Structures are given as C-alpha cells and as structure tokens.
Amino acid sequence: MQMWETRPARIPKEQGGQGHIAGVCEGIAVRYQIDPLILRIVFVVLAFFGGGIAAYLAAWALMPRYSVPVSPIQALFKSGYPKEREQGWWLLIFFILFSGVLGAGIGEFFGSTTLLALLLSGLGWWALHKKEPVPPAGLLVTHHSETQEAPMNTTPQPDLSGITPAEGYPYPPGRSTPPAWDPLGTAPFAWDLPDPAPVVVEKKRSRLWPWMILGFGALVSTTVVIGGVITFSEGYDGGAVGDTHHSPSSIESGNHQFSGGIGDTTIDLRNLNDVQEGQEITIEGFIGDLDVRLPDNIPVQLSCENGLGDSNCTPGLYNEDAEGELLLVHVEAGIGDTDIDWG
Q: How many Å apart are CA 293 and CA 285, to the nearest integer?
C-alpha cells in the first residue's frame, strides 16, 4: 500500500531535525511539506480533549527513524534492530496506559475520545497523502530495482543536507556507487532513487465515501466537544464561562467543594466562621487563574495539587496556635496561576 510504504520518517534532534520530543511532527512536516507548528498545535488540541498523547505515541511507534528501515512497532516482529525493538515495547506499554483501555475497559474504549483522536489522526494522514502522494527525494529508505518505475516528485524539494543518518545505518542501504542520474556523486542522500521515469498520472475518480467518513468524524468530534461543554456547565458551580467568586460565611459539615470554570476563580474563606470538627473544603480550578484567600484566625491544614501554571501553594499546617477546630483545605489547580493569600 503506497500510503504505508511512503509514510513519514521521524527526524529527531540528534539527526539534525528540529523536533522537541521524537521528531514526529518534524518528520510528517518534511514528508508532506507543511509547517510543523500546525501539527504540534493539532496534537496539543487533541491532548486537551483527550487522546492526543495516545495518538502521538501511535505515530511514534509507526514511523521509523530517518535512514532506519523499520519502525519501532515493526521491530517487535523482526530481528536485527535491538534499539528499535526496546523502544517499541516501551511505546506499546505507554500507549496502553494513555489510551485508557486498562481503566475504562474495551467496551468503553470504543466510545472514548482516544479512539476519536486516533480516527481523526488517520483521516488527517489520508488527506495529507492525497495532497502529497510522492515523498521528497532521498527522504525514505526504499529498495527500488534498476527496472522499477517510480514517480519522481516535481514539487520544490526540502533541504535534507543537514540531516544525518542514524548511527549504524548507512544510507542508502547497499549502495556504493553513484546512480546514472548523479555520476559525480554530489547527492548521496538521494541515491536510493532510480533513474527518472515518466510520471504516470492516474485519472482521478470521484469517490463519495471518503467525504462521508470525514464528515462523520467532524460530526462526532463536534458532538463530543459540545457534550463536554454542556456537562461542564451542569457540573461546575458558578457557570462554565466567566469569572467565579465565592465568599461563604458558613458551610455545611463534612466535605464541601468549590469549582471554577473558564475564567478567573476567587474563593474567599476569610469570613468563614463556626468551623466544625472534620470540616473539609476542596477547591478546584479549571481554566484561568485561581485565587484562594484563607483565614488567619483558625487552624488550617493545606494540601495542594499543582496544575499548569505558577503556584505558591505549599502544603502544611498553618495558624497552629489559633483557636477553633481544624479546617482541612485541598487545592486542585487547573490551567493557570494559583495564588494563596492569608488574612
């Protein structure tokens, strides 16, 4: 299958790429000649809604390193590639953990956002292949014969001169003399290509089913996002969008929860009185800055779970010498800065 055989190769930083983790986005961008920043944004968005990490790990496992003939997942079934095989096992383990299969079960997995992210990633790959079916010259490890006819990419080619082969895998494999189209040996990085052959342009046939699948995927994605917003609106105290402010003077005994939404959240407990024994308050942030103002006239046991952003939340026992029952406060930060004020 041409789509699989011409799939992108990862270009990690140690081989001259600009990738930040494993060179996945860099490799896809070079193969299909698009901006890698777009791909990084797509993976971040997918991770925000769930499934983006699993999709990235799947791409990592399926894409070989530049100049290496097999991907990590292929190395699990093919001897001679110990480093790729070890990496393949680790990627498989982490994919299972981040996919949610172990926690949700197989049945719930097929209705999860992880599966949706994988389907959307597959559709995106298919669309990129339709846009750029022929890889840039010298990018992939192929084994063309002298008589094999292969289409040549006539679009402007990316500069691959700064990319180096992986250690232990000379590129191209098995070639020691220049091909006929490069008699001076000026482009050894592209020697895997055969002599230029006529480009065979197939007549495009109108196909309705790919657009139906793409439309169905977009519909499901929109439904998941809308459903998540509705669920969030119903489940969070104070509304889903806008700044939230709570300043209770008393709360019921037991565990009480204050939750923020999309916007800054302020929880002011300085007016709180009549604290009963074993009283516990959980404060949850979501998207936006979280400002928690704690009383200085009663003992407070503070615990913290930091999120994405700066935080001065430090767990411990405060106002130990103050009178009154101990108040347990647990702060769970979200995306944004967390600030704890006293008095």
A: 14
